[in-house]
Design brief:
The complex is a heterotetramer, with 2 copies of chain A (about 80 residues) and 2 copies of chain B (about 140 residues).
Chain A: E1 2-5, H1 8-14, E2 18-21, E3 25-27, H2 28-39, E4 47-50, E5 53-55, E6 60-62, E7 66-70
Parallel strand pairs in A: 1-7
Antiparallel strand pairs in A: 1-2, 3-6, 4-5, 4-7
Chain B: E1 2-5, H1 11-16, E2 25-32, E3 36-37, E4 40-49, H2 51-68, E5 73-79, E6 81-84, E7 88-96, H3 99-116, E8 119-125, E9 128-131
Classes of the chains: A alpha+beta (about 80), B alpha+beta (about 140).
Organism (chains B, C): Terrilactibacillus laevilacticus
Pfam family, one (chains B, C): MoaE
InterPro entries (chains B, C): MoaE_sf, Mopterin_biosynth_MoaE
């Protein structure tokens, strides 16, 4: 099981703060494609964090990981 | 020293965290909620954060600064939740024996926060609201107007 | 907004003078009495000013900043008299809708103060005292050691 | 009468905060030469202010003016 966290407009768009994906492992790229297909999210400008660390498309998400979709930030 | 908080930020307390006997210079940045952005009047803001990651990123920024400007001490507090016009959203304090380092390190901190730290603001106007998509407020993601 | 004072400076009060609804950024510089300069340990300092001229020069610096960075608001307080290690000697606060202006204007203010405003400090060490002859503390005029 | 103000090490060197010069007028350059001769002050790095404004060597000091010797400053 992979835990998915959603924030800001992505959270509002999907309608919930977190999702679960029942997969053993997948790349970040595959994860993004899944989100686009399943929830119609545009992930073009979205960064992905695995267990609170930014990840690149080729990084691997494994069972037990927490993955966050990070749209461009606007703090400060 | 590096915190995400829900209550009003006490600037004096953040500055106190970086004071020491050989800090001849302390540079502070205070980010407040501005009323006008271009020609739109803000009523209030909501800040949301991925809290544990945001705290971790602020701590990392502190470590980066320590490496780049060895004698500096940095403290950062960012507020989340409901903020009114004039409220303080962020305070960054950097002390250093030399003022040049304090200015540069402080500037570096705010630029890093605005590109990297998972915090988002939703602007509320009289005629709608919007999640702001980047730090300059020029890109939006959804527009509920 | 531009003052030479004999009593401790309240940083919060100086910042308050520049706060307004469209100041999204406030940059503050706090100059404190440092204990070590190179390898010399400061016991205390004495600041002396040509007060009316120093006040006039601070006001002029404020006007220069208003011209160079039109939407900024500046306040400066410089303390004179006897100061201990850690005491605040100067506070400069600059508010602006845009942080870049606030950083630049603040930096400009301290550089101008350190070259132009008629204020002098006398360092007191265990083994003597000295009027410091320029802002970096590298030139002396008299050495009573 | 011209009023002269002294600060920092110059004040300590001369031993008083102010002096008076009984002249109708003189240039800043002449004033500096007078200070050097009469009080053995080195004026090389000293700026001169007439009535609280910085002056150059060719500016004229007139009766009633207040002239200050400003050694390099060290505030901030």
């Amino acid at each position: 099981m992979i835990q998915v966290l959603l924030f800001a407009h992505l959270r509002e768009q999907v309608g919930c703060e977190n999702l679960t994906i029942h997969k053993k492992q997948m790349t970040v790229k595959e994860f993004k494609e899944l989100m686009e297909k399943q929830y119609k999210l545009s992930t073009q400008e979205v960064m992905i964090a695995i267990n609170e660390e930014y990840a690149t498309d080729s990084d691997v998400i494994a069972e037990g990981d927490t993955v966050a979709l990070i749209p461009p930030v606007s703090g400060g | 020293m590096f915190d995400i908080v829900s209550c009003p930020i006490d600037t004096g307390k953040v500055i106190k965290q970086v004071e020491h006997r050989n800090a001849g210079a302390i540079v502070t940045f205070i980010g407040t909620v501005r009323e006008m952005t271009q020609d739109k009047k803000t009523l209030y803001l909501e800040y949301e954060a991925y809290e544990p990651m945001a705290r971790g990123m602020l701590t990392n920024i502190g470590k980066e600064i320590e490496k780049k400007w060895p004698d500096t001490v940095t403290a950062i507090a960012h507020r989340i939740g409901h903020l009114e016009v004039g409220d303080i959203a962020v305070v960054i304090a950097v002390s250093s024996p030399h003022r040049s380092d304090a200015y540069e390190a402080n500037r570096y901190a705010i630029e890093r926060i605005k590109t990297l730290v998972p915090i988002w603001k939703k602007e509320h106007w009289e005629d709608g609201d919007m999640w702001i998509g980047n730090q300059e407020g020029t890109i939006s993601y959804t527009d509920h107007q």
